[in-house]
Amino acid sequence: MGIANLKCRQCGAAMERKGEKAAACPSCGASIVITDDVVNNYSSFQTTQHITKNIYGGDQPDADIYLQKGETYLGLNEYAAAAAEFEKAARENPGDHRAWLGILRGQSKNLTAPSDHKELMAKVRKTAPAAVLPEIEKAYSVYEGKMRERDRARQAEFERQLGIRDEPVFSAAELKARRQEFLSNQKNKIVLNGGVLVKCKAQGEIIFVPEGTAEIAANAFVSFFFAPSAKWVILPEGLKVIRARAFFGVCELLSISIPSSVETIEAEAFLLCKKLRKVTYRGKPEVQRNAYDSPAMTFAYPDD
Length: 304
Hints:
7 helices
């Protein structure tokens, strides 16, 4: 029996040669001095273990050993080593949810740090018994919430550094009052035909698109070349289509929120909106090529 076949008696990993007369386990660090007796004794040990396992079933499965070692490493905050052991367990027994959950816990530093958690959690859900899955889901939900909060905080800091300003936030009553006041003062500058906003020459930092608008026509806001103060356009729920070049040249526009009802944003809809820094999607519309023209933008999407 050669050194290539020797396995560590402590953890079962393949031993690696360290010089002519020594070998070490890369997994747990155990080492041996290689002699003929060691090789012969090890061969005898392996044969005995094989016979015992097959006849009496008394040998502990390798997967269980890896799971135990993984838990030990987690307890020591050795997360990379823990994940490696759980990965071995998953290879031995891919139907054991504890292996996939262990990999997730190792990669995420016991559910405290970012990881590829969605893919791993999908495997946990497929393999976990129904009796234990609710408790796992409860812990995972807390972790997932923390990761979303972390992502939002990082996004907010990124936006702060870019100087991005969200559209103003109003209470429902204030929003209604402001919309009514705006439309009353600017109604002669807004052309709405059968639910299609054909032209908008209204001015001001905040522009309200009338409720009942289902489509914003091409070039509807082109007159904004002469209204540099327009920084926000408040779109109503019920809007479905934003046509090509609808906001062409609204050069002071900073951010915009796309309602969940919007189905399509056509090509070049926001052409020459060079100061546009943030687009917040409330739904998942089809966004055609080159819809936006700003050199530095960030996008926010609804939670999955």
